[in-house]
Amino acid sequence: MDDQVEDAVAHQHRLLAEWLGSRADQAVLAELRAAHTADFTLVTIDGEVLDRDTLFAALEAAAGAQPGLRIDITDVTVVARLEDALLVRFLETHLRREQATARRVTALLRSGEGPLRWAYVHETTALR
Questions:
Q1: Between the N and C ends of the chain, which has fewer C-beta atoms within 10 Å?
Q2: What are the residues whose beta carbons fall under 8 Å from the beta carbon of 26, sequence distance 6 or more?
Q3: Structural domains in the chain?
C-alpha cells in the first residue's frame, strides 16, 4: 500500500507540474479534478482555505503560467491508516529557473473503491 500511496502522490504532482509548466491539454486538468473529492479542501502555505471549485478555477486560469516547472516529491510517509482513508505527509519541492521552494504537506487520501482520492491538503513552507 505504501508504494501505491507514493505513486499516487507523485502522479498528481507530475500532472500539476505539466499543467502549470506547459501548454497541457485540458485532459490533464480533468484528471487532476477527478482525483479530488467533491468536498476537498486545501489550506495553502499562506493560510488561505480553498474549496475544490475555487482551487480548480485558479488552476484553470494558471495553465502554463510557470514554464519549465518541475515538482519533486520526497519523504512520503503514511502517518495514519483509517478505515477508509490514509493520512500522509511528504515534502513537495517546486523547481523552476534554478530556484527551489519547498513545502511540507499533510494530506488525507480517501481509500475506498478505486484509486486514492484527495480529500484534504494542508501545506506549510519548509526550509530546505
A1: C
A2: none
A3: 2-126 (3.10.450.50)
